[in-house]
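Archive entry: two folds, one per protein. Generate the first.
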Amino acid sequence: MRSLSLLDHSCVSLEHIPSSEGRSFIVHDPETSTIYAAFEDNEATIHIMATGLSPVDPLAFSLLGHIPYDPKQSPLGAIVDFTFLSDLQVACLVTREGDIILVSKERFERGEEVLENVGTVDAGVHAMTWSPDQDLVILVTGEKNVLVMTQDFDTITEYPLHVQEQGEGVQQSVGWGKKETQFHGSAGKEAALQKVDASKFSLSEDDDQRPRIAWRGDGSLFTISDIDPLKDARVIRIYNREGVLQNTSEPVDCLEHVLDWRPSGNLIVSSQRLPHRHDIVFLEKNGLRHGEFTLRETTQHRLLQVSWNADSSVLAVWIEALVPATGKMQKSVQFWTSGNYYWYMKQSIVLAQGADVVGFAWDVESPLRAYVVSSLGHYHCLNYAWDILGSTSVEEDNAGYIAVMDGASVLLTPFSHQNIPPPMCALKQPTSGNVRHVSFGPNSAGTQMAVLTTERIQLFELPANARGPVTTFASLLFPSVDANTSSYGHSPIRHLQWMEERQLAYLQYNEEKAVDMLCIATFVAEDENSLTVVATSMETRIGRLYYNVSNKDLMVQNITGTVYEVHLHEDHKATLQEVQQFPDFCPWMATTCLGTKETNVERIVIGLTERSKLYANDRLLSAKCTSFSLRSDWLVFSTTSHAARFLPLSVSFDDFKLSDNTPDANDESYRRLERGAKIVAATQLKPNLILQMPRGNLETISPRAFVLAAICEDIKNVNYRSAFIACRRNRIDLNILFDENPQQFFDAIERFVEQVSEVDYLNLFLSNLRNEDTTLTMYRKSNRTVVTEKETGLEKKVNSICEAVRNVLLKLSRKDYIQSILSTYVRSSPPDLESALILLAEIKETSTTEAEDALKYTIFLCDADSLYDVALGMYNFSLVLMVAQQAQKDPREYLPFLQELHNLEKYYQRFRIDDYLKRYEKALKNLSCTGDDRFQELVEYMRKHSLYLPALSVYANRPPQKQIILNVYGEYLTQSNAYSEAGIVYTMANNLEKALQAYCMDGSWRECFSLAKQMKHSNEYLHDLAYNLIEFMKEKRRFQEAATIANDYAKDVEEAVDCLLKGSLWQEAARVAHTYDRADLIETHVKPGLIEGYSQTDEEMDDMTAQFNKQRLRLKELREIKPEPTVAMPNDDSLDNVDMFSDTTSMYSQFTRYTKASSCVSTISSVGSNKTRKTSKLRKREERKRARGKKGTVFEEEYIVNSLKRLCEKANSMQNDLHNLLRALAPFGYVEEARTIQNKFEHFLKEMVDAIPSIFVPLHLATSQFASQEEVEESTAPVQIDKPVMTDIQWKLQIL
């Protein structure tokens, strides 16, 4: 769908006029941008000229030298080849007489001799071509020998051109794929029997009898075309770089002299002149034919040359044809490209004033730059670009026409209405001459088309949907050239724009001023000679003229990237106002507006450079853009990473940029594309994006960004039907119809049902509802944030919508919308199946058929077994039978059960049903209604399903049964080890003996003694009970309570003191001993207990000190031998993807966790063996290894830090205990012991506090070998271990 547009044109006059009979040569020095030209004049002289020598005008040509020649020896031209040699910085010219001449611009600047004859081929030179790397040169001499020479013209080999051998690569037939077995199409099987007689093949009448040489782009092969005297026909031979013949072309009748090899290497191009047509034919490197296309010339003509451009995208056909208007032959150049196996003529170079193209060449670096020399003595430089020719209107009525130039026709397709794959089209509009440019008119529908041809400007009116006739609005001849316009009037028109109904704008190059002229042309449609032009000098060279139909912006951009807005006055004179400066020239540009009507609208200029940089004003949007297009609300562009990116135009310029976040699955601004796809157009009427693949086929997609924007606009306008259809067509979640504006949806619920009135549509909408806000999840916009359901009240969304829709449907017609009404019940959360069945039961009373149909639909929506269970739970057997029948359940499964239920008493029947449905509480209640005869069954049922609380609720006012239930409940709690609650339940049941046992087992000694007294047990029993509870309390380390029991109930002071000493309650033990006048216990129990406590504390402190010192030293050693976390260990790329590592190879070492660089092998290994190793057993084993922290493992550092943390916490908790011990030691005379242990603990505590900052630093924790990718990525960052908090407690005694 791309066309070639002429971007830039410049023209320079030559001092001498070339001969129209000979060929002029143009070569380019890419380093200095110097242009060399060599041509013959009518006086038998070769002139060599170059640019860059004049200090006044660097673009002017200066004469380097001239060479006379004998016209008798060179009747068809004296120059054989002219090439610039980059390594030598000279131009090499070869004449037909055999002279090889080097032309040096540097010697000219130094005033030395410019021309140097380095040698002469005595037999003359008929063809010569340098290899692409310019290391070799191939010559065909007058004796038809081939010379292979070096850059210094040393002969490598020489061999005859015409030989009988076919070459080393000739294919040998082994009988497969014979022609007789091939498909011959409409020619039928008889074609297989026809034999081709190559001896009857002849030469073309237009053959110039000269040999031709062409190299493949990589320089490994070259080909020579010449007339073989043995066959009297032209033959193409293919040689390798060493000059060894590889293949010879198959016989081709009337094969002509033109020859070139596509730089990409797949095709050799030549021509074939048949009686009824003239073909450009292609051959493969093996010499076999590979397709062709036919030239479209209908008059007398002949081919001069064919030439591929640098990137193999365009084939230039240099042709001489008869012009019917003048009756003379004129030389011109045609540009051909292919797509989908069809060849388009994209452009033609036909010079004004009937001048011939006597010289043509492509630029060696810029693929779409061409150089031309005219027979009037002018040099032209033409820069082209690939353009998508469409209307710039962004209004909804834009038909989306895209025009494709193809010779004397314009191929048109309105993509807003249809997509027709090229080379087909919706409309094919013939024109008066070959098309040079197409633009669309000022109407917003994009149905007015202006076509620039080689002869005139034609204006057409197109049908909006490509159905109907095309009317010609005007056909205008080019304006006549007078003395005032002679400097630019003959220059080719480019960038034609149709701005107003009677106004055009275009550019022409002014040769005298070396600037471009902006021409504003007015016309009268009925008069072809009415074109009146007012030209304004741009004072610079312009690379792009752009007109925006919607915004009425007329912009020009010069070749340095400066953008100007053009203001037209009443006299059609133009003034320029600079509006933007791109960092580089952008061949593709557009204007649009940012913001909305509610905000300030700001105009911006979008530009795309040849190096894939997309700019908005001077801001770089993307450095890898390949194409872009504008809609009224979006900018969309494709990238070299095969993705489409979407930027909304409703934002401010500050926010008009790509997000830094990585696109996720719900990002509407990102979409993957097929490799190499480019944007053709973004239609305005429909949310469609047209893409063209590299092979030429088209694809229409509906990007989520476009679709969601259209849906939101429809919802805003309360056009729910259009929004619903768009969601359904593009698979957009229907929840957005509500989520976009919930309050509006409820307010317009009746309108919603009225617009989406089809039952199937309503059912589809209801069935897709869920408690989720899709505008915050699936279709999240950049200015929204995700919030939780509780914050937005989404848990009631589905129920609210279902209820609202149901109320509307019930008002309209229950009969017509019964399916949708049932859907509202089923889709409720949780499903309200019981209400649905109640509705079905009501319908069944009036019409069984309608009830059955409705039931079938309900079964379709939900699980049939669930519906059967709900019907059974309603105790409606007729409804149960209907559901079972419609669900096609096996009667043998449900009929016996229903029959059994039918024979039971009412409440027992319901009990059985509820038990079957596992509604145990309801079953218990129904069982309680059957009477006391089934109470024992109820108790067993209660015990089976643990229904103690519901049973107590049912029998709350029936004491006998309640007491039984409480006793059973107490047994359950006792078995569950809930002794305290069991004691309470037994007490409620007045079963004090079991209550006492439960309290004893729980250790609730207060309740035990209260019940024992209440039950009036003897003192001996209380004494035994006391000692039993004392032992229980000691086991539970509840020493304070044990001492209380010993004092109050056992009356054993010695036992009380002993319990207090075991609990380190030193002062309390002394107090009790003195209270009961047992001073002897001080010597026998308290002091020995103090000494024992002192000894244990001293030993514990020694152990803690030893552990602390040992682990601290080991931690220091570990951190000294490991590398710094910020220093990545070197990654040896040579170890990546090496076969010596198997899938189960373990390369995990002590230092693996410290490296930032990761080997691809270890990654592949872990992924490849992930499934075999990732087991629960190995995970637990690894966790045990981590917990042990064995020395030398990767877990050791983490283990030591955690161990030291626990040690610090233990020391912190010891402060209170040590304080109590010190207060007890000093009064009893153990001052030295108290001082010793206080100093020891103080020293240990200070050492520990000082070491905490160096111990607890951020750690690089070892990653589990079974960790997920996310866990591995998270583990690369250091983890801060929480430092232990040391409480500041006054634990020391100052007297010590």
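Generate the second and append.
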Amino acid sequence: MVAMSALRAAAAFTARLNPLNRANQAAHLLSRAVVRSEQVAVRYGSHGKRMFIIKPTDFYDRRFLHLLKYYILLTGIPVAAFVTFVNVVIGEAELAEIPEGYEPEYWEYYKHPITRWITRNIYDSPVKDYEKMMALIQIEAEKAQMRQKQLEVRKHMREKGDGPWFHVETLDKSLIDQAELRNILRKKLMTLRRAEWHRRRRKERARKRAAFIANPFGFTKQLLGKKRNGQLTCSKAEIDHHLRDTFCDRSREQDLGPCQHLIYPPAPTLNFDGKEASWKEIQEVIKKARSSSAPGPSGVPYRVYKNCPKLLHRLWKILKVIWRRGKVAQQWRFAEGVWIPKEEQSKTIDQFRTISLLSVEGKIFFSIVARRLTDYLLSNSYIDTSVQKGGIPKVPGCLEHTGVATQLIREARENKGDLVVLWLDLTNAYGSIPHKLVEEALRRYHIPDKFRVLILDYYDMTLWSSRNAKMATDLGELLVPYMPTIRVPRSGDRVYKSECAFSYDSPESEGGLYVCMNTFLGFGREHVERHYRKTGQSVYMHLKRHVKEKATGAAGGAVPRRRNGKVFLDLELNRDFNGDDYEYEDEAKLVIFPDHYEIPLPNIEELPALVTIACDAVLNAGSAYKKQESDSWEEELQVSKHARSLRQQENGVRIPPSGWKCAKCEMRENLWLNLTDGSVLCGKWFFDGSGGNGHALEHYRETKFPLAVKLDTITPDGADIYSFDEEEAVLDPHISEHLTHFGIDMLKMQRTENGHHTDNHMQSRASEWEVIQESNLKLKAVYGSGYTGIKNLGNSCYLSTTMQVLFSIPEFQRAYVGNLQRIFDYSPLDPTQDFSTQMAKLGQGLLSGQYSKPPIKSELIEQVMKEEYKQQHRGISPKMFKALVSKGHPEFSSNRQQDAHEFFLHVINVVERNSAGSENPSDVFRFIVEERVQCCQTQKVRYTQRVDYLMQLPVPMEAATNREELIAYEAKRKDAEENMRAPPEPVRARVPFTACLQAFTEPENVPDFWSSALQAKSAGVKTSRFGSFPDYMVVQLKKFTFGVDWVPKKLNVSVDVPDFLDLNRLRATGLQAGEEELPDLTPPIVIPEDTRDSSMNNSLESPEIDESSVMQLAEMGFPLEACRKAVYYTGNMGAEMAFNWIIAHMEEPDFAEPLAIPSYMEPDLPSPSLPTAGPLDNQPPEESIAILTSMGFPRHHTIQALKATNNNLERALDWIFTHPESEEESEAMSDMADTEPNDTSFSNANAHSDSTLSPDQELSSPRVRDGPGRYELFAFISHMGTSTMSGHYVCHIKKEGRWVIYNDHKVCLSERPPKNLGYIYFYRRLSSC
């Protein structure tokens, strides 16, 4: 080990001396650290969605094997060399006689020198081993004797009743000094008590300190304040008398007389600003006003003017009129008084204090006057700010008081002295100031007469109304009866505070959102009463967000203003607007049902601690739809430190738009452009053999130029940039300027399907994205019922398009929206997990028109005046539905793009499961497919039927009508790649729809077809026809295929899909006259040789096997039994066919086992000892039946499900849920389920089919609808992109005779519906048929 450590250290030191030498790479094998690659991985993908194939790597396995081999050789070679040297040079010892008088050592009896050395230096001598053995025997003997003695002692103890105790005589009590003992115990007890007291005191101090730091106001109020509640009970005369004594100035008209202590200030240098109030001043007052401030007698709070800019502008004009007239409005003379108790159980008028609620408009007006007075006094130095602190803007009025109190507390603590605090409160401090003194002060300080009169006129307020004191009682008492129902959300609870469980109301809606404080479910204004009646929960948190557009003239690009930002800490915006153009304000309050009593939040000092904690937890809870683990594996990129200081060389390098290759090799993939000198070099080598030769990294080591950009990732959205110095992918905010230096305009670059880049202006034809989205046309937005869009939740367009089409079908509308109230009323306590509820909610959101309202005329006029018309598509955000329908699905539950076809089948499957015992709207899609399989040798046929939900049409590219253009394009593309030129404009194949339909009807080969007529595998063909025609036919064009990297890719093809489709000629006809059915036999079963019955062998005829063919195959080296089986199963059709059979079955485990010939007896000669091939072979195993019956399903239903799904437990369970059985059928089938054979001709011939129908039940059942096969196109879903794992989906639906395009939340009238570029087409049966 010491040698290995030294060798490892030497290797590491050598590697550090010359890290670039490839010869030193082996040194990494000796170090324990992971080999640090000279090349780093780069994140791929910056334009469009790209597939990241995750596959297991064998790099660590191979590295382990290499290291193991290296260490074995590192130790094995020296050992082998040493052993060889000993054997050759020294050799084995020879046997010789022992000299007289010489006593040989024990190790000299061994022959080989290495064995002798090991015995001498490592092993103990035989004498020592003998002594050790004898010592061990002695120790064990002593232990045995001790155990015998213990047993004997225990025996005597039991006989005499002794125990394991002993007795020691104590001293005489008279010899003990009791007084001294008591003193010692007393001192110890006092010490313990003092220590315990100090410990409790420290703990209490720590608790109070933490409470004070967390909430100073609440702690101080609890410490010094008293519990205050009660209700005023007195007569009106007593109230009037109290108000006159407290607020009225009886000597108002009397002159003050000479005021010697009042000074006469000098004349002002700056006059009082008497101009009318400006719009900016009004806005500042409203901005700083509290939204929770109570309104005055008018009932109009500040919140109204905050949210209504036009109303505030109107108020500004009124205030300017009052300013010019100099007279207070009559409405401002009214005040509303509130009685607040001073102590617990207050009743008399002396136990209350009053506050006056003034008119908000008057407070706005006089706030501007007060600001101008303050500015006037400060600008003329009439106020000494070194003395006066109160009322000075941005200066705490109690600053000096707090500083003095803090200093006194510090000194008392340091001197360990006492501190007495005396609180002085002046009774009616403001009310005791005479009005004449106010008038005299305004006159002496040169306030203009107009404003002196205006201020004094405001004091002539004579009307004062009293409000019930009940509003000022302790809020804690109101919540005491509901405390057991208020719960604090735990870590696993989901708080739905952004979406209603029954609608798409949110805090931004007009009525806001109510969150239950027990279940944390969100409800809109229309549904909260239902939840209250069903559950009895009374306390809800009402959340409201006010969103408004910024006023004209606001600075562009400003961060949106957000008040009460801590209220909705994790609430997501539910509307599509630019945050720079809007501002929003959040509001929260507790609402107690059924009285709708409201408690504004935050109100920490008045609410109980539990309620405060629960409210804070709800307000700060994260989104209910966020996963615990991130779906993305990419890390957030940081801006490179070289981005701003990068110096680019003026070497005249210009990079072409395509045709790149490495400057040091011929690589054309994984190319990187160095942003300093413009070198185009290949990237790193990957472990799977792909990538480049690492020339870009070598170039960095030579030049130290740090930044490089990957060429095939440059798009207007950005590019993939790597920093060799920082060894990670980075961001470059100046990438556009850096690329322009080399002649690359990234704003004109876009990725094409073959990975090259091209200039946008070079494309003459409109791209697939523009055609399908009709983005080059001016589309008219539509609003109302059925024209509601669905917001994109992040690659969720496949869900949006599928659900838009489904809810345009009347059966889905009737099943969910028609039964909306019944579904909502009978929904479970957690409606977020109920599929029917969420489907009804989604249907109501799409069809009600509530979330698709046109803008009002005033907004349109304002937009036209601003010359910036914006189409407002609100739409709905089905986060709750997506989370439920994709729950447990590995693909749909992610944020990746998915196949709309697969999601359609998934939704149909979920609808089937949740429609047991009720109307199943997916019945409109279900139809029967009849498959006809024919044996090519015997021409015999077999008919089977299966259930399907859509028709998959292949797209034969060989049938394209523009084959010449495609061939020419392919030649130009290859020539452009060879000559490094820009690729030509892509050509889209045009395939007729009739060719697709013909390809669907053509026979297809059946792989591994076993012919029951030949009792061997043979060639077979299959054709499909329709056993029934559904009400709605879904047609999917199989545009997607797999590339060489096994990534699904889309064919660039255009199919002229017709508006009217006639499929009557594809109706199944069943078994025709002259056709012979294949025997209903199972493949042969191999029977072991030792278990065969001799009587059975005698009864079987010897098979006819062509021995010459067998010998030809055996001479090739194949096993004899395998050759016999090959000749037998190919029907003696020759050695060539048998050879092909051998090649196809070489990997089978029973390939070389003896040939077993099955028995085919007549029906009247049964033999229980032989394995029959009749229908009873399909009897499900009892283990599977027991598993399903243990779940509560009937036995006959279980057997039927297993037979229909080929004994597959998982699919059988799905079959049971999708095929509920009525009670009448259950009783009729219970007696015959165990005995009747499966004589049906229906089989599970299609591996991806969900179920197989029974002829007695399913064909006659109304679950499979049938009718004429003439259809009309009413909707289609289109896909844009190169793969199902990327791109975008939109759908077109024909409503009211016009085509409508649904592009996420945008819904517009379609001008040119791209029917030839669709992916999934939806047809409905013509009613005239």
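Annotation attached to the second fold: The first strand starts at residue 334 and ends at 341. DSSP finds 37 helices and 35 strands in the chain.
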